[in-house]
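Whether sequence alone determines local backbone shape is best considered at the level of individual chains. In the encoding step, the backbone of a single protein was reduced to a row of integers, each denoting a local shape. For completeness, the protein is quoted in full, as a sequence line and a line of structure tokens.
***
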Amino acid sequence: MINLLIFLLYILVIFSVTYYYRLKRERPTQKNYLVSNRELGTWDVAFSSSAAVFSSAGVLFAFGLALAFGMPGFGIMVAFLLTPLLLAIFAPALNELAREKKILTLSDIIRERFGLYSEKIYAFISVAFMFGWMVGAFNINIALLERFLEVDKYFATIISFSIVITYLTVGGFRAIVKTDKLQFLVMLLFSITMVSFINNPVPVAETIDFSLWFSGAFWLLAPVFFWGNIANTAAWQPVIAARNGRVARNGMLLSVILGFLFYGPIIWLSSTFARDLPGINPNLALFEGIGTLFPNFLTPLLFIAVYAAMMSTLDTSLFYTASNTIKNLFPKKLKENLNEVALIKLFLILFAFVAIISSFFIEGFVEFTIAIFPIIGITAFPLLFGLFTKLPDKGVFSAMILGLISFFYLFFFPPENSLWNMFPALSTGFVILLLLFFKNKN
């Protein structure tokens, strides 16, 4: 009963925040729906980016990595922490370009710098990644509700679907930003609470062994997540929506600090999970740890914190999947007599429905995340180079097609050595560098 009451309180707060920050009587335009009229302040950028980059990865994936790879799993998490620092360097340039050209999405930036072909393939890759991320988030959301509210899978599905669709259709990007702020605060509270109440934790000194952190699996997987997060649409969108370049940069720098506050305890705690839950399925590590390593009275609070983390992943991935599809992939002729915001809302529902069905077929969130992350790394080099230079449209398009072919080959025929997971990003980057070389030579 207490689990249900806390869950209902969480939903009430989320819907109240959404209603307060809804579009109110504004006409639903692309600008106010997709970038909240470019009004985001430093804290908005910081919390929204933090929730996008650190949420599900920090709460569920980190514990799974510790079980699957041991201490190198901690080093892999460092890649997540370093990403906002690099994004902060490029944030002013991206924000300035977005404001100057009235750009609303990352795919728009690619079209502006390279051309239509590059935009389409870039949007397709972003949508494919965000859809996969959404499928994983629904999978965990439903499992959480099944486990802690003791409801069946189908009722849990209806609950998760209804919550995210309601506040996204009502508030758009503004609702995401404001609820992300709340949800990341809940996640920080979760991290601090776990540190305070975990039974018999591993001493901090035993956790900090950098020679083991940066060894083995770190060199195989950390670059994949580092490059992948550089092109994470959800991390960049707050930068595009920031008031100015200074706000965008400061918001990303603040995001780094928030990440350290969140990840520090998570890394320490996951070492205790690895010690006390040997041999357990990495996908179940957090669920089992909450039930066995903490006092029973904390279970409802820890449950709602994990749910908040997954919800912040779900709303951003669903929003960007629908908005990029309509804005950058939907045929222009079909949009001429239709309201694009209304179309985005329709596709929110359609994508959520398909993602829920797909989520039933995922066997493990940790493995699924490792499998899909290389696809977004394909877009990292085009995005970064596109901020500062223009290159031939068909050349950039071909580079990303090569990366996409590499990804699908590795996805369906995974090699024994995970180092190959970097190949989609590196093959794309190699072609981009060749284009830049010949451009400068001419």
